[in-house]
Amino acid sequence: MVAGQIANLLSYDKVPFDTSSGNLVTNARDYIKSNPAAGWERRDHARVLWNGVTEADNARYKTCTDIMANKYVARETLRSAIEDDFCNKNLNAPVSIRYHEGSMEDVTVHLEYYHDNPDPSVLTQASCRQNLLEITDGCSIPDVHDNPLNFKAGGVASLGGATYRIEPQSLRQPASRAYDQDGNGCNCVYKFWYDDFTVWGHGWISEDFGVAFREKLKAKCSLNGQTWTFNYGLGDDGREWTAWFRTTVFQSSCVSGVAKEFGANEDFNCNSG
Fold first, then answer.
1. Matching CATH number, 56-175, of 1.10.1660, 2.60.120, 3.30.430, 3.30.1370
2. What is the pTM assigned to this prediction?
């Protein structure tokens, strides 16, 4: 084993002991016996050799959160948070950022230290992205029945004295209900001077309290902005949010079309009454 370690040390670009004096074996032995970079002593005074591998080189410790707990967010929500914001922060201290607070896409991303001096190699932007994307795409695998829209429930990756953690915050409908017909719908009531709409859904318009949907309805479907109300909330029918608003008359087809632009199913239509 010691011979193998000597061969390993000699393979370094810069050999960590003197190779010019002719006392190669003696110099290697002295280095292995005493240099802190070559190993450490256990409590029983036995010398443990270090082969140059760091914790960052080993398989990471990963725990996935079960999507059946009904706390999850869209994959794009996490990708954007990780690549466009979180991993661009100063990672030389613990970081915790909450995104889309109060919405169905409410999620907190953490970098925590479980050693006082974590391995610097796990605190780089590249390592941050690698580990957070691992507990994004390496967890909550898409499934035609249980997770048809590839939602992500997060998890934990710990290595090198640091822990990366993704924690969705909002209790949601089961991910398997994303395509439930009852959980997505639209009622339109003709009131002579205006159309009165109730629209509800699951898995779309989940992060911005309906703002972009409202603005598109204003631009295309003559929405009366003063009549707009939007709430996140679970319903027995599978919904996660509900919007109420009025437009000028005969706008049901327009509203249906805008809803499909935002993620409603292709068979989504506003029922008129």
1. 3.30.430
2. 0.75
